[in-house]
Design goal:
mainly alpha; 53% helix; 160 residues; 2 domains; single chain; elongated; 0% strand
Length: 160
């Protein structure tokens, strides 16, 4: 996506101010602050090699973030968004938030309310119940367990 020699980099006054705020804000993640520094140094005429030496990074990183900045601003992408990692490819989430919320609600119910002859929910029973209610067409008990663990929901400890 980003190849060739370094592109001329000119910062508008508002961009410069926003980058400086990002760099100086204590809550800014280190990698975002470093990327902002790359852009600021590039706008001051530093070469990729000089930026790499100054920030103790590779020239490849200096080039990547300088080029990504130029590309992002050409596309009218916001200052902070130009400094963020690109979206990663991969499988999109299988379940909608609404479906996951249904799982959490069921996990907080008594199994008897669903006609289940058990005293506490298991991942297998919850998966079966979601399918039976038509909330999902398929879900593995293991995935149910992961979703509950991520949300720190423990149906076996509920007092109903």
């Amino acid at each position: 996506m980003f190849t060739g020699s370094a592109k001329a980099l000119h910062l508008e006054e508002l961009e410069q101010e926003e980058l400086e705020q990002i760099i100086n804000r204590h809550s800014t993640p280190q990698q975002i602050a470093q990327r902002a520094k790359i852009v600021v140094l590039a706008s001051q005429g530093y070469s990729q090699a000089m930026i790499a030496r100054e920030l103790d990074i590779s020239r490849k990183s200096a080039r990547l973030w300088r080029d990504r900045w130029v590309w992002g601003r050409e596309k009218d992408i916001g200052v902070l968004d130009c400094l963020k990692d690109a979206e990663r490819s991969g499988t999109p989430p299988t379940f909608e938030l609404e479906q996951i919320m249904h799982l959490f609600a069921i996990a907080c119910e008594s199994p008897e309310e669903s006609g289940r002859p058990i005293s506490q929910w298991t991942s297998r029973e919850l998966a079966d119940e979601m399918i039976q209610r038509g909330i999902v067409t398929t879900i593995s008990p293991r995935h149910v367990g992961r979703l509950l663990a991520e949300a720190d929901i423990k149906p076996h400890q509920s007092g109903y």
